[in-house]
Amino acid sequence: MPTPIHLVTGATSGIGQATAKLLVEQGKRVVGIGRSIERLPEGVEPAQLDLRDVSAIKNFFQSLADDQESIASLLNSAGLALSSRISDGDPDDWQRMWEINVHALALCCQCALPLMEEDGLIVNVSSQSGHRVPSAGGFYAPTKFAVSAITEALRKELRAAGRRVRVGAFSPGFVDTPILGDYLRRNPDREQQLRDAQALLPPAAVASLIVSMINQPPEVEVGDILVRARGQVS
Ligand SMILES: NC(=O)c1ccc[n+]([C@@H]2O[C@H](COP(=O)([O-])OP(=O)(O)OC[C@H]3O[C@@H](n4cnc5c(N)ncnc54)[C@H](OP(=O)(O)O)[C@@H]3O)[C@@H](O)[C@H]2O)c1
Questions:
Q1: Residue 165 alpha carbon to ligand 1 centre in Å
Q2: pLDDT tens digit string along 88-102?
Q3: Nearest to residue 105, comparing CAs of 128, 138, 132, 127?
Q4: 4, 74, 78, 101: least buried by Cβ within 10 Å?
Q5: Which residues span the domain enclosing 52?
Q6: CATH code at 143?
Q7: What atom in ligand 1 is closest to the CA of residue 128?
Q8: Is the pLDDT of residue 124 over 90?
Q9: CA dist., res. 151 & res. 122, Å (int)
Q10: Active-site residue among 60, 61, 140, 145?
Q11: Pocket of ligand 1 (CB under 6 A)
């Protein structure tokens, strides 16, 4: 049987990329999902997928099943943070965020479950914006509240079904990744203000926390990690 894989969506950038890199450094077998697979860290096996494409997601997991692969962990890190307000934002932006942040994440959970090792782990990347609504967050925070709710709903479904697969969320504040440019596009000075205030988490620090969730013994199920840089006020 092939070595179980650690599957990472969003492995081509930011949090997912840093986590995939660290997992490889720890000797784990990692498959990374994204469109820009040329940006995958060295040693990560590529899975070029557009997560808006439901059939492509299903076909990908079917191909894993056909190859008798099993999944040790799934990190759902792919996401969009478009600055798009409820009052006047573009509904197309809402739909794009919903497709990736919510629908694709839930579908990846569902498709991965039949392939998960008995004590496997799913980590869904939520956000501080899955815990409190920022004043300028628009439609992004609703997608992240949905991630927290999906994670808790899935945990209860798994326990009710007597399955041992664990599921948890990871909820960072601002992390120094390319997504910030989109999130702060209405307020371009804000990124420099955050840097000056040391309010950005380094992706490598975030990755080490996620990997610590993955490396917990099977008895331990981390529910959520809420983390922010020291300089982030709210
Ligand atoms: N950075 C922060 O401040 C922060 C804070 C809280 C939570 N988060 C959350 O952390 C997660 C990762 O964000 P990040 O900061 O690492 O952002 P990032 O650097 O922009 O990475 C986003 C990832 O999502 C993937 N992605 C986007 N659209 C996709 C699509 N249609 N199909 C497949 N993959 C797609 C991208 O891959 P391709 O472009 O290669 O397809 C990329 O790997 C997100 O869920 C975000 O909401 C971030």
A1: 25
A2: 999 999 999 999 999
A3: 127
A4: 4
A5: 5-226
A6: 3.40.50.720
A7: 6
A8: yes
A9: 9
A10: 140
A11: 10, 12-16, 34-36, 49-52, 77-81, 100-101, 125, 127, 172, 174-175, 177-180
